[in-house]
Each structure stands twice: as structure tokens, then as C-alpha cells.
Specification:
By secondary structure, the protein is an alpha/beta fold. It is built from 3 helices and 8 strands. A hairpin with a 6-residue loop joins strand 2 and strand 3. The relative contact order is 0.19.
């Protein structure tokens, strides 16, 4: 079934974030990054959720983690919290880096790399969201 208005554009890569607590993740991304919910649906075989969110001009998908099936037909998909690590850094470029980082921290993210002015002309910092995903937030040096 096509999800009208909530699909990524052809040729674009869309991050698909695995989380523990998808509903709380949607609330966090809305507060921290101004995300707009385009689509959400309960998962058919668990109490988890799947959602498509617009963050700026990008889209991300959120899905609750899911253990492997007992019959071995489905591989498990795990959130960073279960893995004890993340394999991806999400980069978000904004006009006002200081305010964007503060908004994320106020929503529940933890600072990971302090704000600094890079030698290449951008101001940036890293935060880790409550679900274990690392966000690099950067923008122009003012």
C-alpha cells in the first residue's frame, strides 16, 4: 500500500532509525528537531510502532526494535540501546547551531561533543538522543 505524501523522494536516501519506545521517540524528535509526523502505524506483530517524520527538508523513519522470530525466518533488528553502540551519525545543518543544540538538550538529548568552530568554517557539536542515536548539528560560523 502506498503511503501518499509520506514516502521518500525517488533517488533519496532516508535514515531508518531503530528505537526502543517509538511513541516516545516521535515525541522527542518533534520537540528536539521540529519533526512533523507524516505517517504512523502500529507494527502488526508487536505493540511497537513505525512512523515517517519530516525533519526540515529530510525524512526519517522510526521503527521499534524487534527480536528475531522464534522460527529464525526474521532477523532481529536492534536499537543502539540494545547494541551498546550506534553505527551512524546523523548530520543536520541549521542556521543557528547554538539554539538547535540547546533545543535538543532541553528535549532530552545529552551533549557528546561540545560546540566549537571548525577550521573549515562551520560551527558544530554532537548530541546523543535518548534512543542512542548521535546527531551532528552544524551551521555557519557567525
Amino acid at each position: 500500500m502506498a503511503i501518499k505524501g509520506a514516502r521518500s523522494e525517488e533517488g533519496r536516501v532516508t535514515a531508518h532509525l531503530l528505537v526502543r519506545g517509538g511513541r516516545k521517540a516521535i515525541e522527542f524528535y518533534t520537540r528536539a528537531f521540529g519533526a512533523t509526523v507524516l505517517y504512523q502505524s502500529p507494527l502488526p506483530h508487536s505493540d511497537g510502532i513505525h512512523a515517517h517524520l519530516r525533519v526540515g527538508r529530510s525524512m526519517i523513519m522510526i521503527t521499534d526494535e524487534d527480536p528475531p522470530s522464534p522460527d529464525g525466518m526474521m532477523l532481529g533488528i536492534a536499537a543502539p540501546e540494545s547494541l551498546g553502540a550506534t553505527t551512524t551519525i546523523l548530520e543536520c545543518y541549521v542556521e543557528d547551531v547554538d539554539s538547535a543544540i540547546q533545543r535538543a538538550v532541553d528535549a532530552g538529548a545529552k551533549p557528546l561533543l561540545p560546540l566549537c568552530d571548525g577550521f573549515y568554517g562551520d560551527r558544530f557539536g554532537w548530541v546523543v538522543d535518548p534512543f542512542g542515536h548521535v546527531w551532528s548539528i552544524g551551521g555557519p560560523v557567525k
